Amino acid sequence: MSKTKRVYFFGGKTAEGKADMKNLLGGKGANLAEMCLMGLPVPAGLTVTTEACTAYYANGGKLPEGLMDEVWEGMKKVETAMGMKYGDADNPLLLSCRSGARASMPGMMDTVLNIGLCSKTIPGLLKKTNNPRFVYDSYRRLIMMYADVVMEKAEGLDFGIRKQLDDMLDDYKHKKGYKQDTDLTADDLKGLSEEFKKKVKAVIGIDFPDDAAKQLEGGINAVFKSWNGKKAVSYRRIEHIPDDWGTAVNVQTMVFGNMGENSATGVAFTRNPATGENQFYGEWLINAQGEDVVAGIRTPSPLNDATKNDQNKHLPSMQELMPTTYVELDNIRNVLEKNFKDMLDIEFTIQEGTLYMLQCRVGKRTGVAALEMALDMLNEKLIDDKEAVMRLSPAQLDELLHPILDAADEKKYTVIAKGLPAGPGGAVGVVALTSEKAMEYRAKGITNILVREETNPEDVEGMRAAEGILTARGGMTSHAALVARGWGKCCIVGCEAVHINLEKGEVKIGGKAYKEGDTLSLNGTKGWVYDAAIKMIDATENPRFREFMKLVDKHRTMSVRTNADTPEDARNAINFGAEGIGLFRIEHMFYGENSEEPLAKLRNMILADTTGERIAALNELAPFIKATAKGTLAVMDGKPLTFRLMDPPLHEFVPQTEEKQRELAKEKGMAYEEIKKRIDALHEVNPMMGLRGVRLGIVYPEVSEAQFRALFEATAELLKEGKKPQLEIMVPLTIAVTELKNQKAICNRVHAEVETAFGVKIPYLYGTMIEIPRAALMADEIAEVAEFFSFGTNDLTQMTFGFSRDDVNAIVHKYTEEKIIPADPFNTLDQEGVGQLVQMGVARGRQTNPALKVGVCGEHGGDPESVAFFFNAGMSYVSCSPFRVPVARLAAAQAAIKGEKR
Ligand code: ADP
Ligand code: MG
Ligand code: MG
Predict the structure, then answer these.
(1) Rounded distance between C-alpha atoms, residue 566 and residue 78, angstroms
(2) Could you tell me the distance, in angstroms and rounded to a whole number, from the CA of residue 820 to the centre of ligand 1?
């Protein structure tokens, strides 16, 4: 016998395990033990540990030595507790063999019921129960499950025996004119059992084992095997459950819901998992066993009258039919919630009027339900406010912030294409193939979906005008994705099944053509496309959302700012709780609405031939910069606002097609050839690594000067108006302190000039982005000049990986699929690699400048896992798009609460 205990008993009011032993006993086993300890009615049984499962695989997929001896030893206790004997001819005990991993994997692994029925035990059970229908119903179920799970799947075979037996059953019912399983008589079932056994032998070539001991061993073996079943393995991939956890096996005394009209089986939630309402919610079936409730063989009945719905309102509830048992179950519901302090999902069976609990676990729930339950349970003093904050996952909060497709309605339609879920929520509208069309629809009040090959900055207005965006190309950080997420707009990118033919005015999706005006629905949370108008539900502001966020802020220590470039976005973000702007991109004024004028001035500056021409163009541009700066500073009154100096490569702002270049030439009254020459001169092989960021200001100091002056003047005017602007100037793409010094000299001079001219003191901070690995390495020197750092984790990821973020999507996809990297580093910060640079940058910077403010701007600032990392790295704030602000607030609070617990 092995030294470590591998078999744990539960039954009566005792148990060798308890709730917090999930790692060893699996969730099901640990909670079965806990329910016994709570004195609830649980049929006695044994839990074979997850360690035994690991040993099983180490042993080449065979039961480890001595394990069955321990099981038989444990069975003695089970038999005593239940007053029956396994395999006995007179008083036979039957067993179920149930899987149960640490984390719930509903329906992914296998369970076999009614184990122990064989020619030796059947007569005894017949005599004892005097219920041949029940005995043969149990027997035929055993043969079906055992043949499928133990004889076929566990052996790696694929005959589809389950389906063949199901078909036999259906044919038989059909022949007899029966509608339901319950119409089958004892003789029918007895005959079917014999036919089943013949079929099993004919298909698999082995006899169904007529021996109780063999059946149990086979059952345990099969449950271990099912850990590596196809379904289970792919579920683990999706849920990130490690392969080496293993499953426990619960060997439990059978109780029977199929003994007649006074017996039943059911599943329930202690509160409504869809709405969170504090009402007992569940389904049950009379004279049924196991999975019948969820299998959809019969429409299950409602548990109580309060929760009847359209499908089941004609059926009697348990409250009506078995009032005493219902009250008993309802009491158990309360006892369970008090003990587990959460909403639970339970499974129960009633055997001839006696109630048994077969399972309980913390129940899955929607975002709305999670919110309602957390606050209700806080009011009920079941949990404290820290726990309430922990109860809503960031993903669930996100779900609350976007209108979504009605899941029930969505199920009625078929997905026509799948892409990357770039912007969550749902959208329904007609196809628009161009931005112009989207705007036209919008003007007429027609909701539309902008469908594009990919989007570029020129599509911004069309994107605004669309309800949702669908692109054929691009990754999670493509232009469309960034913009859409920023607006909280539903967006699917990289949907390869989409083929646009603008000449024909149609888009082919998976072979079928759609014209402008045809309706599509998008599920942006999943990346699914439909060609029907699916119902939408408004998941927006629940009055309790604000109540919840107050709790969140009470426990949050790190600030949350937003990335916003317009007064409108800034207002929006403040509504979502932003405490400042961590990234204002000056160049935003050159895109979209009202951009024609400033863009024309910018082009003049870009295409200038001499410094003089450039300065003249900048003088005309400056008022525009000042105006947008002032507008947003006014909205942010009293809250910090970080302006990033112009960053992108300049070629992005000049037309690239001949047609557009000719137009520009005409506009400027210049020869086309001259314009073309100047634009060609801007060409760079790697523009993202070329003349951009601070390099622009070093090469053209007058460009920085104009921006400094506009920012200081805007601030000075607001100060004089009695406002409290908090200006922060941020230099992008820095690699050395000398760059910062070079620019600071200009900044200092302009600052002094503006202060004198306006006669006010203008406070401000001067800082930099850390977005090139060298900057993180040189952070100590850089912090001698910079008053704050903002980690630009998008570029930092791009530069550290050497992944071009605009076109690396296909590679990243392959890399994650092949597990070369664990996740898309542009979505979730690569903590091992890029994370080191962040930690190093913070540490080195604070070495020379202990007062250094440190933050993050970039998409990672809104990613919950990354936010937790940034919190632990000692950041002062994270900054993310307005719609991500609540999510970042929650993630920051949860990180702080977890940090306290450590
Ligand atoms: P899953 O993990 O897929 O939910 P379970 O192990 O819970 O699988 O088994 C499925 C169903 O089988 C249970 O919901 C219950 O109805 C039935 N069942 C399992 N064990 C027993 C038992 N000992 N007595 C009666 N029914 C059982
Ligand atoms: Mg279950
Ligand atoms: Mg950058």
Answers:
(1) 70
(2) 39
Measured from the alpha carbon of residue 361, the closest ligand is 2
Distance CA 508, CA 470 (A): 13
Cα–ligand 1 centroid distance for 40 (angstroms): 17
Name the residue at shortest CA distance from atom 23 of ligand 1.
254
Which residue's alpha carbon is nearest to atom 13 within ligand 1? 290
Over residues 556-570, the mean pLDDT reads 94
Neighbours of 571 (CB within 10 A): 16
For 154-169, b where at least 16 C-beta lie within 10 A, e where not — what string? beeeeeebeebbeebb
pTM above 0.85, yes or no: no
Question: Which atom of ligand 1 lies nearest, measured to the CA of 289?
Answer: 16
Ligand approaching nearest to the C-alpha of 770: 3
- Say which residues have a Cβ less than 8 Å from residue 411's Cβ, sequence separation at least 6: none
Neighbours of ion ligand 2 (CB under 5 A): 359
Q: Name the helix (H) or strand (E) containing 585.
A: strand 581-585
How many angstroms separate the alpha carbon of residue 80 from the centre of ligand 1?
A: 22
Separation CA 751–CA 576 (nearest Å): 33
Instruction: Round to whole Å and give the CA distance between 184 and 170.
Output: 11
Contact in structure between 430 and 440 (CB atoms under 8 Å): no
Q: Which atom of ligand 1 is nearest to the CA of 104?
A: 2
142 or 290, higher pLDDT: 142
Asked whether 95 and 250 are in contact (CB, 8 A), the reply is no
Measured in Å, how far apart are the chain's first and last C-alpha atoms?
Answer: 38
Indicate which residue's Cα is closest to atom 15 of ligand 1: 290
Residue 550, pLDDT score: 95
Task: Name the closest-CA residue to atom 6, ligand 1.
Answer: 98
367 torsion bin: left (phi>0), alpha (psi -120 to 50), beta (else): alpha
* Angle, in degrees to the nearest 10, between helices 737-758 and 701-720: 40
CA 121, distance to chain mean position in Å, is: 50
What confidence category does residue 369 fall into, taking pLDDT thresholds of 50, 70 and 90?
confident
CA 380 from chain centre, in angstroms, equals 29
Counting ligands in written order, the one closest to the CA of 266 is 1
Check if 479 is active-site. Answer: yes
* CA 867 centroid distance within chain: 15
The predicted-structure confidence for 266-305, as pLDDT tens digits, reads as follows 999 999 887 788 999 988 999 998 777 766 567 788 999 9
* CB 113 near ligand 1, within 6 Å: yes
User: Which residue, judged by its Cα, is nearest atom 24 of ligand 1?
Assistant: 254
Helical ranges in 315-471 per DSSP H: 318-321, 323-340, 367-379, 385-390, 394-400, 407-410, 435-443, 460-465
* Strands, sheet with 448-452, edge to edge from the N-terminal-most edge strand: 417-418, 528-530, 519-523, 426-432, 448-452, 468-471, 490-493, 420-423
The residue that leads in pLDDT, 317 or 474, is 317
Q: Which residue type sits at 248?
A: A
Query: Which residue has better confidence, 609 or 483?
Result: 609
**Segment 666-697, tens digit of pLDDT:** 988 899 999 999 999 888 888 889 999 999 99
Q: Which of 118, 490, 857, 880 is catalytic?
A: 857
The edge-to-edge listing of strands for the beta sheet with 45-48 is 14-15, 7-11, 45-48, 247-253, 95-101, 111-115
pLDDT category of residue 511 using cuts at 50, 70 and 90: confident
d(CA 716, ligand 3 centre) in Å: 28
Check pocket membership of 358 for ligand 1, CB cut-off 6 A. yes
Helix/strand/coil for 533? coil
More confident residue, 487 or 732: 732
SS3 content of the chain, % helix, strand, coil (to 5): 50, 15, 35
d(CA 792, CA 645): 14
